[in-house]
Amino acid sequence: MPSATARDFQKVAHTLWFTKTRQTGSHERWNHPDGRAVTIPLHGGSEIGPPLFFKIVRQMGISREEFQKLR
Known about the structure:
This protein is of the alpha+beta class. The protein contains three helices and three strands.
């Protein structure tokens, strides 16, 4: 089952030209110039499990395979 840390998602978001626009508590909001937006939960380095993993990857507009390559 796929999973990743918040740091992995931050790295991929930065690579895809997303910029961090705000942080509320333990959640960061990243926006892309074309209008896409993604929320990345920061929970102390723990793995983000499959349901939320797929939701975040879908919000980024990439496939799981692309995410693995950019990771």
